[in-house]
Amino acid sequence: MPKPQEYLRPEIIAQVQRLDLRARFLVEGFLAGLHRSPFHGFSVEFSEHRKYVPGDDPRLLDWNVYAKTDRYYVRKYQAETNLDTYLLVDMSGSMDYPALKEPDFKAGKLRKIDYSICLAAAIGHMLIHQQDAVGLATFGSKLQAFLPPKTKRSHLLAILSELTNVRPYGATRLAQTIHEVADRVRKRSLMVLFSDLLTDEVAPIIEALHHLRFRGHDLIIFHVLSEDEATFPFHGPRRFIDVEGETSVHTDADGIRAAYLEELKRFIDEYRTETAAVHADFVSVHTGMTFDNALLRFLIGRQKRF
Asked: Is residue 29 over pLDDT 80?
């Protein structure tokens, strides 16, 4: 079993530094709500000052500082400077595909869960490096682990240890888990979901995503498939087994390839459309992609939207 530190791949961390994950979260209404909050009964911890800029609420001006410096400064609050992020990682049986004794990072032979952990590790490292707090929620048939966000590097290693010591198994109940997280996390946060989204119905998951957005959370979804699932390279007679159940089917792979790829495209397009409606970032990747390609997809999609 790989050590947790092995998932902190330096090359991936270097690539993920390009991501400004805070940008939309901070711009899209959060700071406006924050600036109002001291005057509507919310307790926000004072942190430091910054120079006044046109558009700031005049009620935040610190007149004591003005009297000493003859310059305008506004109070800066802790909730404004720190972002809580939760890494939501699918640990259901389908994430254990393809079957590998050990991931081979150099050769790029990874299970879906390995690929997800690498992305989660890089994003978590970047956020903690900029003094933001990172937490974890893992789920399969139920919510399995829930670690509140912290800013210490040792906490990131605890998160990775949790992820690497649990073998994915069983069916997923993604919608129920998202609802549970939405009910549990009260502070507005950034939710980063890593999942293959392989469930029977899309509608309950979209409803759960609406619940997250209603709570004020921002959302990034990394839709992680295996390279086999994304490209369907199989030929001839094959037996396909449901890794989350006991069913299997014998069929001619060549005969169903076109229909399979068409259905996969429809599936991804539906998610892309529905997640756009809740203002979530949706990034479809597979384990055959280099991480810079996966992250570039995210950046391009984000740029098109904003």
From this structure: no
| pTM score of the predicted model | 0.78
Two tokens, residue 142 = 């139920």
Which domains, ranges and CATH numbers included, belong to the chain? Answer: 4-21+82-305 (3.40.50.410), 25-79 (no CATH)
Contact 139, 195 (CB under 8 A): no
133, two tokens: 């707090």
- Could you give the C-alpha distances from 289 to 61, 137, 272, 296, 299, in angstroms and in order? 49, 25, 19, 11, 15
Average pLDDT, the chain: 81
What is the average per-residue pLDDT within 5-23?
69
Tens digits of residue pLDDT in 247-273: 888 899 999 999 999 999 999 999 999
Tens digit of each residue's pLDDT (9 = 90 or more) over 131-155: 889 999 999 888 999 999 999 888 9
